[in-house]
User: Fold this.
Amino acid sequence: MATDATPYAEQPAGPVAYDLDLATLERYRPHRDEPADFDVFWKQSLAAHQQPPSVLLDACDADLSTLDIYDVTFAGFGGQPVKAWLVAPAGASRPLPCVVQFVGYDDGRGLPTEHLLWASAGYAHLVMDARGQGGETPDCPSAPGADIDGPPVVRGLRDPADYYYRRLYVDAVRAVEAVRVLPQIDPTRVVVAGGSQGGGIALAAAALSPVPVAAVLCDVPFLCHWSRAIRVSDRGPYADVARYVARYRDRAASALATLRYFDGVAFAARTTAPALFSVGLMDRVCPPSTVYAAYNHYAGDKRMVVWEFNDHEGGGAHQTRLQLAYLRDLLGSP
Assistant:
């Protein structure tokens, strides 16, 4: 086994790049595979679950003297209660910019002490639970009898009206609307952010929010360029979809038709907020070509940070440092 003293040349080789080379990725702009009624579908989905923003804040004693922490409940898809944490600098004297964070796949909001960085930098920070993914928000079906079996990525996959991500994307839009009505928040400086699943949700929330967000922080995004992703990725939720259509051969056509309504490439093309993306060129969960497909279609001012030798972990804390500087330059001091 290699030790810290072992010369790098003698250590086992790491993963190798398996997707397109960087020069090709930078030009990779596939046809947007979206249905003709894409915009109508989402307009109707949001209108069907429209209600005045409803937010409940319950102050939490987390023994953190420099931060205020709130247990948040807001009305999401179908008016169903969705949980979140709001973490903010203690005793802020003016409304703060807010980072609305969406979590990764098969994860929930966790504990508030896991989310201290953005508030420590002077921002309010809302961390939304992902319904039915290990947090405290259950996943209720779109309609009685809807299919909610299996992992989230295949729930309701036979019908876009019943698909899991229809519920989660509406939740995300409602989260953005909810923070804007809070007196602690500057509604003109709301940022959406996330990695992996959270990055894909951030693209959808930015595209679907009635009022534009101030910025998008999108790291190694999942939920993009489905048609390629399920054929290239060999790990994670894209592979779950591939296994699903391999098992249920008669459902393949309907499943692929459903996914066309939930593609981050289509949402990216409808988003104009400034955006900072990141990609890991050795990412086997969210292949680089799927990330670049969304990035190259993104309609707003954008920047890509490339982590050449990283898998799905991407840039980690190094990317966070870049995000802090990016928002400071874009929005000014919190």
Remarks:
- DSSP finds eleven helices and nine strands in the chain.
- The longest helix spans residues 164-180.
- The beta strands are 55-60, 67-75, 81-89, 96-102, 124-128, 185-195, 215-219, 275-280, 302-307.
- The CA atoms of residues 235 and 282 lie 12 Å apart.
